[in-house]
Amino acid sequence: MGLNKRKESILQAVTTEYVTMAQPVGSRSIARRYNTGLSPATIRNEMADLEEMGYLIQPHTSAGRIPSQKGYRYYVDSLMEKAGLEEEEKEQIKNAFDYNKYGEIDEIIKHTSRLLSSLTNYTSLVLGPQLKKSAFKKLQIMPTDSQRGLLILVTDTGFVKNKVIKLPQTLSMNDLSRIVSYLNKRLEGLTIDKITSSLINEMRRDLYHYVKFLEETFTLLEESLVEDERRVFLGGTTNILNQPEFGDINKVKALLTLFEQQSLLSTLLSRPVAGVEGVVIKIGKENVLEEVQECSLVMTAYCLGNDVVGTIGVLGPTRMEYSRVVAVVQHIANQLEKV
């Protein structure tokens, strides 16, 4: 059941004030700063009702109120006004991606996490593309001298794996070109998990004359089959220390320890957005990991074509500038997809 207009306006005012000031909010402050048309006494009564209904809490006797998790959820779902970015910020983001768009995927993702944290002043988390969902794009062997060459495997999501291999002295450039052309034709468009061991063995048979030289190529492909680590790139990890809610050293230690655990961060980012379109906001205990249950996480998936390949997110206190963070996350996700 929703709140009436009066209670909504007071909950919105308390949330806005608390996000800005990081101090419990009193009725006089609401009466003075917000055009509610209500007396402090009436506001006080409404705040008491909101507390009884679970939307506000009073951290200390005689102190003002702050939003509860339920209050933040109501604010985000029903009261939050959509924010936009300044034109200069949009231009800054566009220019940053234009400058970095020819880098390898790891560099682009690192850059994205830095940009997110600098624009929001919170901690950013970007889940990189899953290798097994990447499609083979190109294999190349570039001779570096008469005895060695650089073997390069590229996927459509920008993964680049490379390895220095020995080249037989009897191998002509025409032979090398034919081998590379054959491999590219057999592998083109296949996702990494479709490059099976039986396919690799079939290619070994077709190229049996060169099989010794090609073993390192096949080894690189086989390594790709078992590699499925979802990398999470972090930005602004120390920003959390600037928030008054995290003055408790034990809370900080728990968060900083979490930031070192890739598999847990991957779970945090991948589970909530599976099959969900748009921006997802997880508040407090809605997050699956205990370490972040006093935080909020704003995240959205990013796609390659129609396929979801990763997630970008911003982690901060529940006292977060939700509207602005949503705008930043949406805009950066759109730019990342274009790149």
What does the average pLDDT come to? 84
Tally of distinct domains = 3
The portion of residues assigned to helices is 40-55%
CATH class of the largest domain: Alpha Beta
Which key features would you list for this structure?
five-stranded antiparallel beta sheet, 12 helices, 10 strands, Arc Repressor Mutant, subunit A, 339 residues, three-stranded antiparallel beta sheet, 3 domains, alpha+beta, Beta-Lactamase, elongated, Enolase-like, domain 1, 18% strand
Short description:
The chain has 339 residues and is α+β, with helices and mostly antiparallel strands. Helix content is 46%, strand content 18%.
Provide structural commentary:
The chain has 339 residues and is an alpha+beta fold. It has 3 domains: 5-79, Winged helix-like DNA-binding domain superfamily/Winged helix DNA-binding domain (Arc Repressor Mutant, subunit A, Orthogonal Bundle), CATH 1.10.10.10; 87-129 and 230-338, GAF domain (Beta-Lactamase), CATH 3.30.450; 132-226, Enolase-like, domain 1, CATH 3.30.390. 46% of the residues lie in helices and 18% in strands. It is built from 12 helices and 10 strands. The protein has helices at 5-21, 27-33, 40-52, 69-79, 87-100, 105-120, 173-187, 197-206, 211-226, 249-258, 262-270, 322-338, and strands at 56-57, 66-67, 123-127, 136-143, 148-155, 160-166, 232-235, 280-283, 295-304, 307-317. The strands form 3 sheets. The protein has a 5-stranded antiparallel beta sheet with strand order 7-3-10-9-8. A hairpin with an 8-residue loop joins strand 1 (56-57) and strand 2. Helix 1 packs across helix 3 (40-52). It is elongated and about 95 Å long. The relative contact order is 0.13.
